[in-house]
From TrEMBL:
It comes from Haloferax denitrificans ATCC 35960. It is found in: Cell membrane. GO terms for cellular component: plasma membrane. The chain crosses the membrane at residues 12-35, 70-92, 104-128, 134-157, 178-203, 235-258. The lineage of its organism: Archaea, Methanobacteriati, Methanobacteriota, Stenosarchaea group, Halobacteria. This is Spermidine/putrescine ABC transporter permease. Residues 66-254 form the ABC transmembrane type-1 domain.
Length: 268
């Protein structure tokens, strides 16, 4: 490699490092400020303390918001996993009129602004008589994350060898037994990757959620936004740090439990 090429690669690496620093420094600052003992945020902090984490753990309001986020994210990822898998099976295994158009429609939640989806779904479900509740939140988040599971499972199914299913049915298994004992285990990496992505997206979703919550179902991102509007204390940084930790820890934990390189196994 010539000196010019080496200089070019050094410039690329340096630029990449600066971009990552620009993106990650605000997050690092939030984490550092969450450990300061004083009430008013300063950077760099005057010292290190767990005071605001203790205040966070003593706050029923914040723990309730965090619990709500868990419930909604888990419910949405499970519902989207079931619906997305059935939908992907139908699109891959069957041909029907308007298939390509309907496939494009399924990706609209990834394209349309969450504000539009939030307003539209609120108006639609309200006219149906559904009040703001966990059910509405889970239904809304399922709508938002469904495309991610659909695309991961569909990608897994396109590379699926149906001869395995045919062999199982030749040996006496019915279609339901074949699905649960043969098909589902083989598409599990794609399904798990999609549900994991759905959980993370739902857990941190704010824009559309603000149209669907009520005081009893306030989620962690909504609670942080509310606190920022009223008062800024390092407890907000403590809660934000906990959210970041959960967002990173959940994928890593599932990757260990379900096998290394889960995303790569999913075919994405």
């Amino acid at each position: 490699m010539s000196s010019r090429d080496e200089l070019g690669w050094a410039a690329v690496k340096g630029t990449t490092g600066l971009v990552y620093l620009f993106l990650l420094f605000p997050l690092l600052a939030v984490v550092i400020i969450s450990f300061q003992p004083s009430k008013y945020p300063t950077f760099p902090p005057e010292g290190l303390s767990l005071t605001w984490y203790e205040a966070f753990l003593d706050s029923d309001r914040m723990l309730s918001a965090l619990t709500n986020s868990f419930i909604v994210a888990l419910g949405a990822s499970v519902c989207a996993g079931v619906v997305g898998t059935i939908t992907a099976l139908g699109f891959v295994r069957r041909s029907f009129p308007g298939k390509n158009v309907l496939s494009s429609v399924l990706f609209l939640p990834m394209i349309i602004s969450p504000v539009v989806i939030g307003v539209a779904l609120t108006a639609f479900l309200t006219r149906m008589g559904m009040q703001k509740s966990y059910l509405l939140l889970i239904a809304g988040h399922t709508t938002l994350v469904l495309p991610y599971i659909f695309v991961t499972v569909r990608a897994q199914l396109y590379g699926f060898d149906r001869a395995v299913e045919e062999a199982a049915m030749t040996l006496g298994a019915n279609e339901l037994e074949t699905f649960f004992e043969v098909t589902l285990p083989l598409i599990a990496p794609g399904l798990a990757a999609g549900m994991l992505l759905a959980f993370v997206i739902s857990f941190g979703e704010f824009t559309a959620t603000q149209f669907w919550v009520q005081p009893a179902t306030t989620t962690a991102p909504i609670e942080i936004y509310t606190m920022v509007r009223t008062s800024i204390t390092p407890m907000i940084n403590a809660m934000a740090t906990v959210l970041m930790l959960i967002t990173v820890a959940v994928p890593l934990a599932l990757d260990v439990l379900l096998g290394k390189n889960l995303i790569l196994k999913s075919g994405l």
